[in-house]
Amino acid sequence: MGAQLSRKVLRKILAAIRVGEVGLEELKEATKLPEEIFKEACTLLSSNQVGVWGERSVAFGRGDKMRAAILLCSLGEPLEDVSKMLSWSEFEDMVSTLLESVGYEVRRRVRLKEPRCEIDVVAAKGDLALVIDCKHWKKTLGYSTMQRIIEAQINRTKALSTSNLSLVKRCDKFLPVILTLYSERPEIVEGVPVVPINLLSDFISGVRGYLDELNVIRLDDKPTGIRER
């Protein structure tokens, strides 16, 4: 299969992937793919460690849909389009995987005790921690709504900067980030970058170049409790 055909086929299979075991005939029926193309697609997924394949069935685990999504992106499918096919939890998985691929150490769903809140994704590299709120919404938000979201993320970032989470102990810069699904130009609100998912890679590669323009929280030694999930 060519890359364009592979993308079209994988889009159909990605939409049909569910955790658990499914018969190959049932999966083929769900995707409505011709027999030969379906077999080629199954071989492509198997060779990329997506699913555990048997003669008549395949078992998909929790991370398989995300791995199929990453494979689809590697074939040239726009990241924004792939993200729309994922649940909010899978969206966070994809963001975490992309950050890990460029050297960040990542922790998902970090829960703070004081104040009691949860952070979607914390990514640390060197002295910098990105504190990310993933918004898997398919529409733009009003300015006042975005301001409330950003204020809450700034407060979560301040709390994280004073925590004893081992991941961020070496960090002295903490940057709150809002990551959105919809495709628009990135903007800065109250010093906080609001980044569309399709521009995440560009943002990651260039973020250190404009930290002075952003609302970076500096390390405070006041400890608070945190438990990791």
Quick description:
By secondary structure, the protein is of the alpha+beta class.
What can you see in these coordinates?
- The structure is a single chain.
- The protein has 229 residues and is α+β, with helices and mostly antiparallel strands.
- It is 40% helix and 24% strand.
- The protein has eight helices and eleven strands.
- The protein has helices spanning 3-16, 24-31, 35-47, 64-74, 79-83, 88-101, 143-161, 200-206, and strands spanning 20-23, 52-53, 57-60, 105-112, 117-125, 128-135, 173-180, 187-189, 192-196, 217-218, 226-227.
- The longest helix is centred in the middle third of the chain and has 19 residues, at 143-161.
- The radius of gyration is 20 Å and the shape is elongated.
- The N and C termini lie far apart (41 Å).
- Mean pLDDT is 86; it is low at 221-229.
Essential attributes:
229 residues, elongated, three-stranded antiparallel sheet, 8 helices, alpha+beta, 2 domains, eight-stranded mixed sheet, Trna Endonuclease, Chain: A, domain 1, disordered C terminus, Arc Repressor Mutant, subunit A
